[in-house]
Prior knowledge:
By secondary structure, the chain is α/β, with parallel strands linked by helices. It is built from 10 helices and 7 strands. The chain has helices spanning 3-11, 22-28, 38-50, 65-77, 88-100, 114-117, 135-139, 141-147, 161-164, 168-183; strands at 55-59, 80-85, 107-111, 125-130, 148-157, 187-192, 198-203. Strands 3-2-1-4-5-7-6 form a 7-stranded mixed β-sheet, sandwiched between helices. The longest helix has 16 residues, at 168-183.
Amino acid sequence: MNKIHAYIESFLRFPNPALADMDAQYRTVERAQPEIGLQVGCFLSLLMEALPARHVLEFGACLGYSTLFLGEAVRRSGGRLTSIESDDEFFRITRENVARAGLEDFVNLVHGDASLIIEELPGPFDLILQDSAKPLYARMLEPCIARLRPRGILAADDALFRPMGIRKEMADPVHEYLERVFADPRLTTTILPIGDGLAISVKREGTGE
Ligand SMILES: C[S@@+](CC[C@H](N)C(=O)[O-])C[C@H]1O[C@@H](n2cnc3c(N)ncnc32)[C@H](O)[C@@H]1O
């Protein structure tokens, strides 16, 4: 981590003590994929407090790092998070971590393919976090926009995979997603250089629920 990011992180705090133990878990559980990280987690929490975000949807929990940030934020806003994870083992571990964090009453964990389950969720949502399989980012864009309320937020993690030199199979679908959201007149989008890059899109007013 460079000095600037270390300096920023020296100020940031986990909103829930259970999060402090999770770094080690991500290093030891085989196949665990990178978590969103402290800066992205804290930024999303801040955004949720400002909106405020009560109806929140997440794709790709892995072991539940992002789930705990979003879950803690909906606990504070009086809302509810729906988090969808397709992997059996990751789903089980996330469920344990959500329970350990005392967030069961605020998090609806769903086991399955987010690209199918989204069709059963009417919305509208205040905030959606996309952090599942990279080819799903562009494929799920239309259903996500349809389920966001006006001025709702669509966040997508790993936006900087291409300049980070991550392999093409992962980076190219994210790049395709970015081209789509930046060109979409229904959205206002930017990328924050925190974690592995966070694309943030706001759904403009007047584009329907
Ligand atoms: C990068 S990890 C998510 C990291 C997580 N957001 C965190 O902060 O720890 C991507 C996750 O998406 C899950 N995933 C992949 N395809 C999926 C799908 N179609 N539906 C739901 N989850 C999926 C993977 O099993 C994996 O756990």
